[in-house]
Design goal:
The protein is an all-alpha fold. The protein is built from 9 helices and no strands.
């Protein structure tokens, strides 16, 4: 599964949460059962971050959405914004520009071209503030395969799939 596919799964779970307000484990179980989906570690990590920090994420939506109040934003667009902001704020291994690009692509797939431009504007404005709060991205992170279409790590020798980039594993083993 690629990061793009995992991110799309996270978006779907965040979208579903908007209607069900169910715990993540319950939504994952339902998704796995009904659609025979295998939820990746990245999907779970991203969705958990979004649901756990929803209040702060929504404050970013409120602050940087100049044309619409949050309650008037289409649910698909809101789920895209929340997913991208969760990734931008809480997942250090993904460059902000990748998160924005992937959000725009998701909105093109599930919404309209007009919504894509709106999402790009909101996330671009939010990125400026986020970048002020965070240290510069370590160039080693860019080389870990965090880009959207790079497959996650192959099955490890022990038979378990790993979502941890090799560079992080190597650093942790030293």
């Amino acid at each position: 599964m690629t990061r793009r596919e995992a991110r799309e799964q996270a978006f779907m779970l965040v979208f579903e949460w908007e209607f069900q307000k169910a715990p993540l484990d319950e939504m994952v179980e339902n998704a796995s059962f009904t659609e025979e989906m295998k939820i990746s570690g990245f999907t779970r990590e991203l969705t958990t971050a979004v649901l756990k920090h929803m209040e702060e994420i929504d404050s970013f939506v409120d602050r940087f959405s100049t044309k619409w109040k949050r309650k008037r934003i289409a649910k698909v667009s809101l789920a895209v914004l929340r997913t991208a902001l969760g990734e931008m704020l809480y997942l250090d291994q993904v460059p902000i520009s990748v998160s924005i690009n992937e959000a725009v692509e998701l909105s093109k797939k599930y919404s309209t071209e007009q919504d894509s431009a709106y999402i790009n504007g909101v996330l671009g404005a939010a990125a400026k503030e986020i970048e002020k709060r965070q240290p510069a991205v370590n160039p080693a992170v860019l080389a870990t395969g965090a880009e959207a279409n790079v497959p996650m790590q192959e099955v490890e020798a022990g038979g378990e799939q790993s979502d941890v980039p090799k560079a992080e594993k190597a650093a942790g083993e030293q």
